[in-house]
Amino acid sequence: MRRGRLSKVITGALLAASVFAGSVFAGSVTVFAADEPAGAASASSSLYVKVQLDSPLKLSKLKPGDVVEGKLARDVYSSDRALFPAGSRVILAVDHLEKRRRAPDDHWPWVVKIFTPRHEKYPVFKTATVSAASRDSMLQVSLISISRKREVHAQTKKKKSADETGEVEVSKSGGLYGPSKLAAPMMVLEAFGVEDVKSPSMNADPSSSAPDLSGLETLPAGTACKILLLGDVSASKSKPGDLVQGRLLEPVFLNSRLVLPAGTLIEGKVVKKTPPRWGSRAGSLSLTFTGLTLPGGNVIPIAASLAGAELDRRSHTKIDSEGQLRGERPGMAWMAINIGVTAGLAKEVDDTTQLIIEALVSSATDASTAGTARIVSSCISGIYIVSRRGRDVILPRFTEMDIALDRPLSVSKSVAAVAATVIHGN
User: Fold this and answer.
1) I need a surface site. Which of 168, 182, 367, 424 has the fewest CB within 10 A?
2) Under a CB-based contact definition with an 8 Å cutoff, are residues 280 and 379 in contact?
3) CA atoms of 317 and 175, how far apart (whole Å)
4) Are 395 and 309 in contact (CB under 8 A)?
């Protein structure tokens, strides 16, 4: 009977949390590719395609043959070329449904997660039709995620702007620092088979048929680069010194000349991490980026730090002025769940202790038995509430991030030209 009361308390707390979550996050769904091949998204021949859906999706109601439509949320680049402009229509047909393991998150405490299914159904798309410039292009695609996103930026910190060396261009498609906040669900895809997609360079200088390839191009400190994370990173599982890799999503230009082509591999490491601790103290994570590899194979040392990231809307991670990722304090729902479980645990321990004392000590009075039981239950419940760990800091694979150069970066003009040529296959 007493175990039944504890079960009812826990169940009530979980139901309250579920209702609260449903009212706050209705219409938001996240699916991450947990079983993608290890080399996925690392090859320069694949593209990162971000689609803003026309309407919310209910994955449980999708069937093979259903059509999903949306538009590109940003330009799709290959080296210095924008193959598809933002706003292009995208049409996908569901091939079949499969089960996929849920990605780790920092939304709720463990007591909720143990009652959450570990797998969920997700749609599988094999091809996507992109309509741009009065022509349709067919791409092979693999679903990465479907979710509502929010932008997390480094807190107030003055950045150095482009100086007299020239004007730096990074992106023309909005993105993490764009003025618009995309409220509709976002679908992120990895596209293959782009060799046949032809598009002229949108940044080439037509007045110069034989550009000067001598000398260096120098990007000033503070230049932002948009990258795609190629592996999971978290405060609880990563270790200082662990390798962090990303891929440049959009080319970087200086005075309309290509310096870093899209597809450039960015490497960094975990500098410091603090896992979630007792007392509901959240974790923290610090990253630095130390080198880049151009498509032609040239390796260049850099010094860059994290400036922003695009995370699931329900994520409770922020970035301080030093570029360190920190988990937020537990909210009211989180604390209510833990307090509810603690109260149920205290009641169960109190009743159980009284039964044990009465069975072992026949001369024990009701007053002494009740007093001892309260002391034991208070100790157990106190230990439980203090031992609760805070929020984790989780960056799933394929997280879109912004990094900023801490020092000027010089790249040979000839090396940049060779890198673009390698991607174009000329």
Assistant:
1) 367
2) no
3) 19
4) yes
- Confirm whether 207 is domain-assigned: no
Query: What residue numbers bound the domain in which 305 lies?
Result: 25-172+183-194+215-330+390-424
Q: Which residues contact 342 (CB under 8 A, 6 or more apart)?
A: 381, 384, 385
Cα–Cα distances in angstroms (integers) from residue 202 to residues 136, 260, 345, in the given order: 19, 15, 64
Residues 374 and 234 in one domain: no
Separation CA 384–CA 282 (nearest Å) = 17
Q: Is the predicted pLDDT of residue 32 greater than 50, yes or no?
A: no
Tell me how far apart the alpha carbons of residues 370 and 128 are, in angstroms, rounded to a whole number: 68
Report yes or no on 201 lying in a domain: no
Partners of 221 in the beta sheet?
none
pLDDT computed for residue 304 by the predictor? 95
Q: Tell me if residue 2 falls in helix, strand or coil.
A: helix
The model carries a pTM of: 0.71
* Residues 264 and 295 sit within 8 Å (Cβ to Cβ): yes
Q: Which of 422, 410, 424 is nearest to 165 (CA)?
A: 410
Residues 300, 284: Cα–Cα separation, whole Å: 29
Q: What's the first-to-final CA gap in the chain, in angstroms? A: 77
Query: Which residue blocks in 43-109 are alpha helix, DSSP H?
Result: none
Q: What is the token pair recorded at 243?
A: 């390798």
Average pLDDT of the segment spanning 184-208:
62
Q: How far is CA 388 from CA 20, 30, 335, 382, 383, in A?
A: 21, 26, 10, 10, 9
3-state secondary structure 3-40: HHHHHHHHHHHHHHHHHHHHHHCCCCCCCCCCCCCCCC
Q: What is the mean pLDDT of residues 136-162?
A: 75
Residue length of the chain: 426
Work out the angle between the directed axes of helices 2-24 and 332-360 (0-180°, nearest 10). Answer: 180
Structure tokens at 415: 């090396």
Alpha helices by DSSP H, listed for 39-125, are 110-113
How far, CA to CA in Å, does 411 sit from each of 58, 161, 390, 408?
47, 19, 43, 10
Whether 11 maps to a domain, the answer reads: no
pLDDT tens string 60-117 = 788 899 999 999 988 888 877 888 899 999 999 999 888 877 767 666 666 667 777 7
Whether 263 and 316 map to the same domain: the answer is: yes
Claim to verify: residue 259 and residue 342 sit in the same structural domain: no
Radius of gyration, CA atoms only, the chain: 26
Tokens for 85, please give them. Answer: 């402009």
